[in-house]
Amino acid sequence: MIVVIGGGPAGRFAAMRLSRGGKKVRLVEKRSAGVGGQCLHQGCMIICALNDVARFIDLAETFQNNGFLNSPGRVSYPILIRKMQETIRVITGVLEQETKQAGVEIVQGHAGIQGSALHIDGVNTPYEAVIVASGASPRIPEIPGCSLPGVYTAHSILSMPDLPKKMVIIGSGVIAAEFAYIFSLFGSDVTILARSSLLRTFPGQLVMEARKDLSRVNIKEGVRIEEIIGDGGVTGVKVTDANGTMTIAAEAVLLATGMIPNTGFISGIKTSSDGSLLVNDRMETSVPGIYAAGDVTGTGFLTPVARHQGRKAADAILGNPFEPDPVAIPQAIKLKHDLAYCRKPGEPGKGLSIPGPAGPGTFWDVAGHHTGSATVEFDQDGLITGLAEASPAASVAMAYLGWMMNSDIKIEEFDRFVEVHPSPDGIPWLLKYLNGQKR
Question: Mean pLDDT across the chain, nearest whole number?
């Protein structure tokens, strides 16, 4: 029996691959809501659902400003959350059916690991191998007042009873920016408090695009959070910046301050300083026969990476050759546009950017100069070293473009590329322009 702990992307993909490889597999999921992991229940799908509504409002406001559409009205947050959760339950059912049809046994329960010993709901459980795919949880910073009612994380924001008039988001990364865009379109007065700079790991061109999309949001960078204040509930956040100390009023505070691996149920296995499980190139931990995959390894907190690691751990157990690790990993954030990029490690090469073309989702933004952008980075040999795009569907295009980068496709090879028209994707135009140019 192979036991997989966690039914998120890493665990599910590992379990199904093992089962199809002829192994008997038991997947242990502690969530009463079922499989799908953080991605489905508290992450990616939540953002997709809420962002769809925010983008609809954004586009409706553009139509209204052009004079041919009346006001779109106000969002009912409780109804939105209820209807969204109904859809999530449908998706959960599909995932569970797919997993079971692959031959995987799914049980609800809590695992515990002490060295090489595995316990499920307190019962010692023998195994051939174990894959730990227990994911990660929001990091709670050491800020006074974090336990006040009205302070939320991405995992608890759905319990917020209604839209706040004023919301403060503490953080500077993807989660902070995505929720800031969503709640600002829903009608909340949103302030981002960033210790450093907004989206500091993103290419500069995309940060500029993000600031356009977040034009309704008050962004304060380089601040120190002193405390979250309130008496029986949040009333504000006290911060210090170069101008001194001030209090920003808030009815709700969202902590978007990173993630920590879920390893509290494990002892006797080597971890890094952040608690993530250390693994070798076979995804095996310091205890033989116990493997780990996904967010619990602390590598990127990205669903595609988790799936890749789940497959790799399964292949290690099955004795199969491994899929090569990707050199460049596509990433994206969803605001008014998808802001997507893919870069090879090392210093960025030469780069060139152009505005996004008019097309589906951007036509009505031509007058406001908000059609997005496309950027290509390349080296002296014509190899593509980086791509970045802001457009309504940049994340879809970037997945294929990232594969091309990992396959060492050169700019000149895009001369044979035929794009679909009309499209807001500017990358093909830019690559064809660069082809044959003196670089």
Answer: 95
pLDDT digits (tens, 9 = 90+) for 124-166: 999 999 999 999 999 999 999 999 999 999 999 999 999 999 9
CA distances from 259 to 39, 275, 296 (A): 13, 11, 10
| 3-class secondary-structure state, position 300 | coil
Give whole-number Cα distances, 193 to 127, 157, 172, 214, 225, in Å.
Answer: 47, 18, 7, 13, 8
* CA–CA distance, 424 with 391 (Å, rounded to integer): 6
Reduced to 3 states, what is the DSSP secondary structure of residue 192? strand
CA 360 vs. chain centroid, Å, equals: 24
CA 76 to chain CA mean position, Å: 25
Q: How far apart are CA 398 and CA 329, in angstroms?
A: 10
Q: For residue 12, what pLDDT is reported?
A: 98
- Give the span between the Cα atoms of 122 and 86, in whole angstroms: 33
- Beta strands 224-230 and 129-132: pairing type? unpaired
Euclidean distance between the first and the last CA atom of the chain, given in angstroms as a whole number = 57
Q: Which residues pair with 403 in a beta bridge?
A: none
Query: 371, exposed or middle or buried, with CB in 10 Å at 0-12, 13-18, 19+?
Result: buried
* pLDDT tens per residue, range 336-388: 999 999 999 987 778 999 999 999 999 999 999 999 999 999 988 889 999 99
Torsion angle in degrees (nearest 10) through CA of 419, 422, 426, 432: 40
User: Is the model's pLDDT at 436 over the cut of 80?
Assistant: no
Burial of 101 (C-beta count, 10 Å sphere; 0-12/13-18/19+): exposed
DSSP notation for 109-135: --EEEETTEEEETTEE---SEEEE---
Question: Any idea which residue has 């949880």 for tokens?
Answer: 137
For 399-408, the pLDDT digits (tens) are 999 998 889 8
User: In this predicted model, what pLDDT tens digit does every residue of 167-208 receive, in sequence order?
Assistant: 999 999 999 999 999 999 999 999 999 999 999 999 999 999
Whole-prediction pTM value? 0.96
β-strand pairing of 25-29 with 105-108: parallel
Structural contact between residues 129 and 317, judged by C-beta atoms closer than 8 angstroms: yes
99, 343, 109: which is closest to 206 by C-alpha? 343
